[in-house]
UniProtKB/TrEMBL annotation:
MF terms in GO: peroxidase activity
Pfam families: CAP59_mtransfer
Name of the featured protein: Polysaccharide export protein
Lineage: superkingdom: Eukaryota
Lineage: Eukaryota, Fungi, Dikarya, Ascomycota, Pezizomycotina
Family matches, as InterPro entries: Mannosyltransferase_CMT1 (IPR021047), Peroxidases_AS (IPR019794)
Length: 398
């Protein structure tokens, strides 16, 4: 009886009516905007920009031969051979990634593309069997000293930036660094990414998918308030600023992102104190914390606050051909019912869950680590309650 009388209360009825009208108008606006975005032509290449393309690959033979090889060659031609430099670092693959990269090297040579492709025989087993060095190792709860995954990955990404240093000393300048993961992409995806926010950004990221409709890289993505995503499907975000932008299919302001493909201004990577990838300190990692090098780079980037970090929700890449085809099919477009359902799912999650407890655990451990130290960790928002180490066939949680 009480529930029925509550539902008959005029204030609640007016509130529900208002919410119904508000959501209806909101759904129509989002649906209309989605239709507009699909009609937008691919922006032309910014030929005045010089692009430094870098990638680290491991066990990617199939992807290279089926997708990546042709996509990169086509991208280079669209950007202009004279405007690009390609650097790829590969090490210790079990498959024929080296053979596929030799074929790519030959094709790039045929186009007269400036490049550096490094094929290393150093395997994960070689790395973890070496004598522990001063940095990049951690004592696990089992008492073993293990090679940390994130400093290892940061080092690989920094190797991809070494040619940039050399060319800068020789007077060759680049405007944008394009970081590519082992993803399925098209040249049009890259052109849209480079045009994010009309080309004004410290960093612009795509959205990545392995099993659509769920996005993949939760480790590096943080909303405008530094929180992890509220949900793995659209509209993803907890913060109002990020959520409202994604509902408009506009560049989404975030604290951090990577998600398969990233364009960053080259300027902070050059100069006296160049920006580089890193992991958190080993002492902090001992507290069972870890943070993605792809998130920490934004925390360290002096351009992030001034120019902004943006996720482009209209640039979607996949980790396999099936995922890429799915996210670019007409069936991936949302209808009004699915939009309304997603809005309410996000709303309920925001009302009933909070990242506060996870973040409190991280903050408390960072606070204890800081005691008696002069060190600081600007990327606290990147950290999660995890310990990750390298193993012979990849990596694992400890």
């Amino acid at each position: 009886m009480r529930r029925r009388s509550l539902l008959r209360h005029p204030v609640l009825r007016y509130l529900l009516f208002f919410l119904f009208v508000w959501d209806s108008l909101r759904v129509l606006r989002i649906y209309s905007r989605q239709a507009e975005v699909t009609l937008h032509p691919t922006p032309p290449p910014r030929n005045q920009k010089r692009i430094y393309i870098t990638c680290q690959l491991w066990n990617a033979e199939s992807l290279l031969r089926i997708h990546w090889h042709n996509a990169l060659l086509s991208l280079v031609e669209k950007l202009g051979v004279e405007n690009v430099f390609v650097t790829i670092y590969e090490s210790g693959s079990f498959d024929d990634t080296k053979g596929a990269l030799r074929e790519l090297d030959t094709a790039l040579e045929g186009l007269h593309v400036q490049r550096q492709i490094t094929l290393s025989d150093i395997t994960h087993l070689d790395e973890i069997s070496s004598q522990p060095t001063e940095h990049g190792w951690v004592k696990t709860p089992q008492g073993e000293v293990e090679l940390r995954r994130i400093p290892y990955l940061a080092d690989l990404r920094n190797k991809g930036l070494k040619p940039l240093e050399v060319m800068a000393s020789e007077g060759q300048a680049f405007d944008i660094i394009l970081f590519l993961n082992d993803i399925v992409f098209s040249p049009e995806d890259v052109l849209r990414l480079l045009d994010t926010n009309n080309g004004n950004y410290a960093a612009a990221c795509s959205l990545d998918f392995s099993k659509p409709p769920y996005f993949y890289d939760t480790f590096a993505l943080r909303d405008s308030n530094g929180h992890e995503a509220a949900m793995l499907t659209w509209p993803y975000f907890r913060s109002a600023k990020s959520r409202h932008a994604v509902e408009q299919f506009a560049p989404v302001p975030v604290a951090s992102c990577w998600n398969g493909m990233v364009a960053m201004s080259a300027e902070p990577f050059l100069g006296k104190n160049p920006l580089r990838f890193r992991g958190i300190s080993d002492a902090l990692a001992t507290s069972h914390l870890e943070g993605s090098e792809c998130c920490l780079i934004h925390a360290d980037n002096p351009f992030s606050a001034a120019k902004g970090v943006f996720l482009n929700p209209n640039v979607k890449v996949g980790y396999n051909g099936t995922a890429y085809d799915a996210i670019h099919s007409t069936s991936a477009e949302m209808n009004p019912i699915s939009i309304l359902s997603a809005i309410w799912q996000n709303r309920i999650l925001r009302w009933t869950t909070t990242p506060m407890f996870k973040e409190w655990v991280v903050h408390n451990r960072v606070r204890k680590w800081k005691q008696g130290r002069s060190d600081n960790e600007p990327g606290e928002f990147c950290l999660v309650n995890e310990m990750q180490i390298i193993v012979e066939n990849g990596w694992k949680h400890v």
